[in-house]
Design goal:
Radius of gyration: 20 Å
Number of strands: 14
Largest sheet: 7 strands, mixed
Helix content: 10-25%
Strand content: 25-35%
Length: 301
């Protein structure tokens, strides 16, 4: 279902697309610098944004000790900046017109909120940052206020999969959301429910392949990211929820991850981060194409 969050500067009800609370925006005066330690975690700077995140593993001041009930919820976004968000943020910085003068932008699985907050910083009029876990929403709200973006951004709780929302958005953002086949199918149904006619979903994904041993004992890995394949299939097929949604790849980067095996040998695992756009063919055709050879003329970096 779609829940109402009261953890933001202005709470909204995603099911009805209504404003349900008065503005309680915090001033960005006396914002902590990026090297100060926050009361719950540490501060880092990403894309010019000051973000409260979890301390690195091994540090003693762990952010939260979640009780068993909380651990049953999806807390994967707590205090992390996922690698795939970098390729999405770079696209927004190179082509800020994508977010400017857009009626409404919604980020799915926002986590600490890098793409959504960056969109607001680049001139987006209204950005709704959504997630599910209460701790994630609290952290997201703090980051919104810390960067002085409470006037342009709102935080709301959104549970994937059963959101028959009347509030649709011209642009959806997301990074590293499809971790499993099950989550991919829930995500696809949510995208169908939230994306306006003629709208676009920009999605960055870090491909992951299951690693296993062959019969000869050698390490091998799958050739396809099952979760990403399930997401593309669910959106690209005609169903009761609506017509097929087209997909276009905007950019892909490939790196090699060296991993150790216990017997001392090393194995090279390719890692691919891809930026995709989903929507009607005409809307995808209007998107700026990534200028790989250099910074685009309208870039702001």
């Amino acid at each position: 279902m779609c829940a109402t969050s009261s953890t933001s500067g202005k709470a909204i009800n995603l099911s009805a697309g209504e404003d349900t609370g008065a503005d309680t925006s915090d001033s960005d005066q006396n914002k902590p610098s990026s090297d100060q330690t926050a009361s719950h975690g540490i501060l880092e700077t990403h894309w010019g944004l000051s973000l409260q995140i979890d301390p690195p593993l091994g540090q003693t001041h762990v952010l939260h000790a979640l009780d068993p009930a909380e651990m049953l919820k999806d807390g994967t976004g707590i205090g992390q900046v996922w690698e795939a968000s970098e390729i999405l943020c770079e696209y927004l910085v190179r082509y800020p017109s994508v977010v400017q003068n857009v009626e409404s932008i919604l980020e799915l699985g926002a986590g600490v909120g890098v793409p959504g907050l960056l969109a607001a910083r680049l001139g987006a009029n209204r950005v709704i940052l959504t997630d599910y876990h209460a701790v994630v929403l609290s952290r997201l709200t703090a980051n919104l206020a810390r960067n002085g973006l409470s006037e342009r951004c709102q935080v709301a709780s959104l549970e994937w999969g059963s959101c028959a929302s009347r509030s649709r958005h011209s642009l959806l953002l997301g990074a590293d959301l499809a971790a499993t086949r099950a989550s991919a199918l829930l995500l696809a149904s949510t995208v169908r429910a939230m994306l306006a006619d003629g709208g676009v979903w920009l999605y960055a994904h870090h491909e992951r392949f299951a690693v296993f041993r062959n019969s000869d004992g050698e390490i091998a890995f799958e050739q396809e990211d099952d979760a990403l394949a399930a997401l593309c299939d669910a959106l690209g097929s005609f169903c009761d929820a609506g017509p097929a949604i087209s997909c276009m790849q905007l950019r892909a980067t490939i790196s090699v991850n060296e991993c150790d095996e216990e017997r001392g040998r090393r194995h090279s695992l390719p890692e691919r981060k891809v930026l995709m756009a989903f929507g009607e063919s005409s809307a995808l055709a209007a998107l700026p194409k990534w200028n790989v050879g250099g910074v685009a003329p309208n870039a702001t970096e």
